[in-house]
Amino acid sequence: MPEVGEHIHVQPVGVAHGGAMIAHLSGPQGRATVFVRHALPGEAGRAVVTGVRSRGRIVFADMVEIVSPAAGRVAPPCSASGPGGCGGCDFQHIALPVQRELKAEVVRDCLVRIGRFDLAAVPWDGSVRAVPGDEHGLRWRTRGRFLAAAEGLAMRRYRSADPVAVADCPITQEAVLDEARSAAAEVTPPAEVFGVRSSQGDLRGGPTGRAGRETVRERVAGRSFRVAAEGFWQVHPGAPLALVDEVLAVLSPQADEVLLDLFAGVGLFGAVCADAVPLRRIEAVEGDRTAARHASANLADIPGASVHRAPVLRWLRDYQGEADLVVLDPPRTGAGAAVLAELDRLRPRAISYVACDPAALARDLRTMADLGWRLEHLAAFDMFPMTHHIECVAGLSPTTR
Fold first, then answer.
1. CATH superfamily of domain region 7-73
2. CATH homologous superfamily for 99-134+236-398?
3. Given 89, 110, 356, 392, which residue is catalytic?
4. Which end of the chain has fewer CB atoms at under 10 Å, N or C?
5. What is the DSSP string of 356-397?
């Protein structure tokens, strides 16, 4: 059984969901699966063990020496990246096209292993697409949280509270870093600070924990939105429009239809659907108090739009109205079987599912398939370059209504 701190020789053979690569070790006690960070499939090197589970059958490690590099390996653009460094980026050592190939492999694996889908029958082109405005995978982050440090800003080590000083964060926009640095200079380390730059040029920064007190203006598809400076909004500047376009393509809303916008945030999808075609009604459901308040303001000019601050499952169980269309953008854990059962009860014409975790999406798509729904569309986007994260949009339709 390998021990923490021990050095082992590894040859990764594939990519795992979560940012690590997969390798294998064989020994007297059997075979172990090694999840090794800062590595690439097809290369060989020496890794240091950082964790052991399941009586040695699961090992976690960091690649610390490359003996035989893979073709996609590059020098990380961030000096804080790598073993023992900042835990924010998983793929800084990988060329951007190869990052997207690996992310596509993760989506494929989740669909087959978790969703039990036949890839030949999945309506997906197999790619992970860049979004508009991407600049070589850098300077995309419009919102950031940092630790205040004596020398400026710091991030946390991977799965640790320990700070790592960062002179720069190459995935974050300079204006956001400036806001965070100014905030860090006014607080006592190790307080947490944030910086935000909106699509309308609004700049905010300060100690974290002021959610709802400050807002910024965002603009998507010709419509303005008010968002809490520390609230949820897609952090890549090209992400909101890319998602809106995909959701509209999936739903193809028709006049006089009823739309349920679930996990609605500040009302982005419902508002843009209503701008595309006059809907009879929009029911937007959001559990967060601040986001629901902003959604009410953002949808106030849309006839028939209502915002409900409630847990989505509880609201759906009480809902006895119609539903022609559904868009849902759940948290990383996914929508879950209970929510999906309620959507099956309503039998909308089309569902657009926006997912930030391909494993949770694959699980939920299997649930819907078992309930008699067809997967009509799937797209994957690289909205978080240099990290392992992937955003997907799925389209579903009922076999009968």
1. Nucleic acid-binding proteins (2.40.50.140)
2. Vaccinia Virus protein VP39 (3.40.50.150)
3. 356
4. C
5. S-HHHHHHHHHHHHHTTEEEEEEEEEE-STTSS--EEEEEEE
